[in-house]
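Milestone M4 deliverable, item 7.
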Amino acid sequence: MPIYNQKRCRFEGKLIPKGVSRKDTEISQVYREISALHGLDDLSCVPTILFEGYIKEGFLVLLTDFARQPLESWISDNGNISDYTIFQIILDLLLCLEKIHARGYTHGDVAIRNVIHRNGHFYLIDFGLATLLQLHSDPCQAIIQDYCELCQIIGIIKFGEKMSISELIGKFEGELKSLVAFVEDASIRWKITDEGKWLEKFGAKVKQFYERSSEGQI
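Output delivered:
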């Protein structure tokens, strides 16, 4: 899918050529992204739609206001990243995921390529795989998957490669290790007897970690 990031114009654009079936994977993801962004449009951590629809030439266009430096490029420009900076990245993304999940969605593609640096903070973009929790056969595992992918971003930043959750636990220390261990524990050992209570418990744990870490207790 052609994606144009225009830094001068301060928007991100997705353009689909005319003649592509709505059932095509690329175009269906654009429609899913449009739907999700409308559902999350009051969250400041989520891109705002500037334009959606077909232009004169028959192309489907989606323009959003989130176009800044990709995280991978930002890391390349800044060299070795300290644990403190990694925490700032993770806290921004944790807060974003917590809000998205609280609104009844999963992101579905939490990857380093979908993180940008904008105005001193880090944000998730590309909601083409975002899905309503109620449409998941297992909403709890869908949420855990978002957080597992977030933990893998930490590994890529710190060690330069994608690692499994168990590998990350063996390499991390302190609060980074606590976060990854919590995600693994929830995915393997937490029993799901009441989906609503499970989601409430998981969300409370994430919020607790965020508040403790953002207050400098890291």
